[in-house]
Design goal:
Low-confidence stretches: none
CATH architecture: 3-Layer(aba) Sandwich
Number of helices: 10
Number of strands: 8
Radius of gyration: 18 Å
Strand content: 15-25%
Largest sheet: 8 strands, mixed
CATH superfamily: Vaccinia Virus protein VP39
Shape: globular
Helix content: 40-55%
CATH class: Alpha Beta
Distance between the termini: 34 Å
Number of domains: 1
Oligomer: single chain
Mean pLDDT: 93
CATH topology: Rossmann fold
Order of helices and strands: HHHEHEHEEHEHHEHHEE
Length: 261
């Protein structure tokens, strides 16, 4: 599949460039949002955690004080380097990092009691297959947690939002709607997920400072945000404040317990 290989190359290129700016962005390191993810996972001191597509290790390091061990796996070496630096800064030692493909997790069935992923599904060509892998490596009665930004249920607005995100980050695949994300849980044999939500807020200039769009696309992206402030074409809250453009991407945390066989 040349398409898949090309997409993998885009992910590697984008996240090598984004490693530091993404990992240190206030919206990504927000303690309240991380606290909501931990609450959804309901960790115990004996738990073992796997963060799938862990990026700079922020979620792994947030879980570390609450569990026995937390592991992060990611395909981008530069992101894992950032993760090691963060773990050292936070002085957490019960963590480990693995370079690997999230489409085929290199772990035995039922290896972890909590399996989580954050802001990864919209980069995946086959998120359903990855969720099935997450369920496979999760122990029965363990928790599976998916966190991602969601597109509007309105197909035209969802298409425009995905067009924007693909311009902003060429490694973007597709943001799913909340209904689609819930459907993935059913397809993976999980019960109806418990859901909590929050908004990923910021200024468009800040968003673009940690993105690497192709030359010339930056202007188009800003124009799309500004137009959406008037007609909601993106299906996400956008507010103009003089020259500044504020956005609020809806984020949903979906959590379910893996049933007993």
């Amino acid at each position: 599949m040349p398409g898949a290989n090309h997409h993998d190359d885009l992910i590697l290129e984008q996240f090598t460039r984004q490693a530091t700016v993404f990992s240190t962005a206030p919206a990504i390191t927000d303690e309240d949002a991380l606290g909501m993810i931990i609450a959804a996972a309901r960790p115990d001191p004996g738990d073992t955690v796997l963060d799938v597509a862990c990026g700079g290790g922020i979620v792994v390091c947030a879980f570390a004080p609450h569990v026995r061990h937390a592991t992060g796996i990611d395909v981008t070496p530069a992101m894992l380097e950032r993760a090691r630096v963060l773990a050292a800064e936070k002085q957490v030692s019960n963590v480990s990092w693995q370079l690997g493909d999230v489409n085929s997790l290199p772990y035995d069935d039922g290896s972890f009691s909590i399996v989580v992923t954050r802001f990864a599904f919209h980069h995946l060509l086959d998120p359903c297959a990855v969720l099935q892998e997450m369920v496979r490596v999760c122990a029965p009665r363990g928790r599976v947690v998916v966190v991602d930004t969601c597109a509007s249920e309105d197909p035209a607005k969802a298409a425009e939002f995905n067009r924007l995100e693909k311009l902003r980050d060429p490694s973007h695949a597709r943001n799913l709607t909340l209904a689609e994300l819930k459907g993935l849980f059913r397809a993976a044999g999980l019960p109806e997920p418990q859901m909590t939500s929050y908004e990923l807020r910021g200024e468009v200039e800040g968003l673009l400072s940690r993105s690497f769009p192709n030359p010339g696309d930056r202007v188009k992206i800003i124009e799309m945000f500004r137009a959406s402030a008037a007609d909601d074409r993106l299906g996400v809250p956008v507010r103009l404040d003089g020259e500044k453009v504020h956005y609020a991407y809806p984020v949903t945390i979906l959590a379910a317990e893996r049933p007993l066989p």
